[in-house]
Write a structure and sequence with these properties.
There is one protein chain. The chain is of the alpha/beta class. About 50% of the residues lie in helices and about 10% in strands. The protein is built from 16 helices and 8 strands. Strands 1-8-5-4-2-3 form a 6-stranded parallel beta sheet. The longest helix has 21 residues, at about 205-225. The N and C termini lie far apart (about 45 Å). About 50% of the residues are buried. Bound molecules: fe (ii) ion.
Length: about 375
C-alpha cells in the first residue's frame, strides 16, 4: 500500500485558547475578518486590548461567500497603505473561506476571478498568512487549503484551492461555540459528519485520514444528539470541536466526494443550508458502498457495525431524530430533478473522488425514490 499524508497547520486546542491569539499575531499588522454581531464585536475588543488595533476589520461576511460581496470587500484591502502581514479569521466556514480569498487576492478580486474561472494566473495570487479561529464545530476550513466561493448571479460554485492557503495556525476554543443556536449547531455538526464519511468513500483515502475520520464520525454520532438537548454544555462542545477538527484533518488530504458534489446545486437552487444539503444523502451513499472493501469498508464498519445496510438505516434514524429528512421531496426536489442531480453529481471533481460505483449509487438513489413513493 502506497500513501502520503501531510497537514502543516499548527493547532492550539482547548477552552480559552482564544487568549493565545495575541501571542500568535505578535507584532504583525493584522486584519480581522469576522461577523457583524455583538458576540464577535466583544471578541474583537478583547483581542484589540492584547494585540492592538487591526489595520482593517471586515465584519460583514455573509453565509456562502459570493463574488459580488467578496469583490467589494477585497477592494477595502486595496485602499490600505500597507497590506496586513496576517489575517485573523474569527467565525464559521464563511469567514475562514472569505479570509482565504482575501489572503490570495492581494487587494485585487480580478486575480481570484481569473484563477477560479480559468485556473490561470496562479503566479499573481498572494498568500498572506491566516490564523483561523473557528466559532462553529463543522467547517474544518481551519485545517484545509481551500475555500468555497459562490457566483450566485451565474449559478456557479468554485473551490479556491492552493497549497499555500492552509492557515498557519488554528485556534480551536470550545468556549467560543457555547450559545450557538440549535439549527446552526445541528447543521455544522452534520457538515463535519459528512466530511468524515466523504473522506472514507474517497479514492484519496489513506490510513491516517481514515483514522481521523473514524474517530470524528463515532464522536459526532454519540455527541450531537446529546448536545442539541444541552447547548450550553462545554464538555460536549469540546468533544464536537475536536470531532470537527479531526474530520477536517481527514478531508484536508482527500477533499470531499459525492454527497458534497450533490449538495452544491441543492444549496444554490433550493437554499438548503450546506450542512443539511451535504448530509441528508449520507444514508443513501452508505447503502451504495457496501462491498467496496479496503480502508473504506473497514472504517465504515468500525463506525456503523458489521452490517452497513443496518448502519444506513441507523444513520437515517439518527438524522431523523435531529429533524433531518432523507427524503429529497422534503427539500422540494422532485423525482426528475433528483435523478438528474445524481447523474450530474458523479461528473464533477468531487464526484470523481467517489470510491463507490456509479451504478450502485444510482440503484441506492432509486431506493430513496421508492421510499418517497411509499410515504407519498
Ligand atoms: Fe462541507
Amino acid at each position: 500500500m502506497v500513501w502520503k499524508y501531510a497537514n502543516p497547520v499548527q493547532i492550539e486546542f482547548g477552552v480559552d485558547s482564544f487568549d493565545k491569539l495575541s501571542e500568535l499575531i505578535g507584532s504583525r499588522r493584522y486584519a480581522l475578518v469576522t461577523y457583524g454581531e455583538p458576540f464577535f464585536d466583544a471578541l474583537a475588543s478583547r483581542l484589540e486590548k492584547s494585540a492592538g488595533a487591526p489595520v482593517l476589520v471586515i465584519r460583514d461576511v455573509a453565509p456562502n461567500p459570493d463574488y459580488r460581496l467578496l469583490a467589494e470587500q477585497t477592494g477595502r484591502f486595496a485602499e490600505l497603505e500597507q497590506q496586513p502581514e496576517v489575517i485573523v479569521a474569527l467565525g464559521g466556514g464563511s469567514v475562514i473561506d472569505s479570509a482565504k480569498v482575501f489572503a490570495a487576492a492581494g487587494g485585487d478580486f480580478g486575480n481570484i476571478r481569473t484563477f477560479l474561472e480559468s485556473q490561470n494566473g496562479a503566479e499573481r495570487l498572494s498568500a498572506i498568512p491566516i490564523i483561523a479561529v473557528p466559532t462553529t464545530a463543522g467547517t474544518g476550513s481551519e485545517v484545509t487549503c481551500w475555500g468555497t466561493v459562490w457566483d450566485e448571479a451565474n449559478g456557479k460554485k468554485y473551490s479556491l484551492a492552493r497549497p499555500n492557503l492552509y492557515p498557519t495556525h488554528a485556534v480551536v476554543d470550545p468556549r467560543l461555540m457555547l450559545g450557538k443556536p440549535l439549527l446552526l449547531t445541528t447543521s455544522t455538526g452534520l457538515d463535519a459528519l459528512s466530511h468524515s464519511l466523504e473522506s472514507l468513500w474517497n479514492v484519496n483515502n489513506n490510513p491516517v485520514s481514515a483514522n481521523y475520520a473514524v474517530s470524528a464520525a463515532r464522536n459526532i454520532l454519540d455527541v450531537l444528539p446529546k448536545l442539541v438537548k444541552d447547548l450550553g454544555n462545554i464538555e460536549l462542545r469540546g468533544r464536537m470541536a475536536m470531532a470537527s477538527l479531526f474530520a477536517g484533518l481527514a478531508f484536508s488530504n482527500t477533499k470531499t466526494a459525492i454527497a458534497h458534489s450533490l449538495s452544491y446545486p441543492i444549496t444554490l437552487r433550493h437554499g438548503v443550508h450546506h450542512g443539511i444539503a451535504c448530509s441528508f444523502s449520507l444514508p443513501m451513499v452508505l447503502r451504495s458502498v457496501q462491498g467496496v472493501g479496503g480502508i473504506c469498508e473497514d472504517s465504515l464498519k468500525q463506525i456503523f457495525g458489521p452490517d452497513l445496510q443496518q448502519g444506513a438505516d441507523d444513520l437515517e434514524g439518527f438524522l431523523g431524530l435531529l429533524g433531518i429528512s432523507c427524503n429529497p421531496a422534503a427539500y422540494k426536489i422532485d423525482r426528475k430533478e433528483w435523478r438528474l442531480l445524481i447523474e450530474d453529481s458523479l461528473q464533477g471533481e468531487r464526484g470523481r473522488n467517489f470510491l463507490g460505483s456509479a451504478s450502485q449509487l444510482i440503484e441506492a438513489s432509486q431506493m430513496v425514490r421508492l421510499a418517497e413513493a411509499r410515504t407519498a
